[in-house]
Amino acid sequence: MPLYKTITVNKETSVAIWKVEESEEDLWKGIELTDHCQNRFNGMKSDLHRKAFLSIRHLLSLYNYVDADLVYDENGKPHLKDGNFISITHSHNFTAVIISASEEVGIDIEMQRDKILRIAHKFTPFEEYRTLANTAAIIRKLTIVWGAKESLYKIYGHRGVSFLHHINVQDFIFNAGRTTAQIIFNGESSDYGIKFLEFENFTCVYATKNKN
To answer: How many CA atoms within 13 Å lie on the side-chain side of 42?
Structure first.
């Protein structure tokens, strides 16, 4: 069972990361899907997507959940039937969940690629990154910022929120492994804690909403 890493965020919040290395046949073991999710699975043409989908069900089982405990709202945001908060992500051969009994959460995994240099202007003021030592460092930092904004968007769950104009991630240093962020939208603001880690040319970022 290739559980890659678990992280205890606090006593009520946890992250679990899976590295997909098994065959699809092996990933089916112990998994039973609802009719809705079976239909979703049947529509997946990518072998990678199908295996990611199944691996996430194994991650759920670590927390004593089954597929039927997971429901999606009209915006596609996942929820757990018992009221606990959840966020899900996958990128290539990595998948992850963050689950909390007490706070809204979001998570994102991204591969570190130079493609992000071409789209940076769409989600952050690129000028802020020109002081970094080299292109590799810029790619790393941009990937963290993108992952943070993606995680926050998953928490917020409202259409119309702009990564560039409404979500602000405070500057950080790599070694800190954390920063803070704010969403200002429709005259309202909300604050979040951000944590990140890097492994095998991937970046995982997860966010928790600060309580008022």
So the answer is: 7
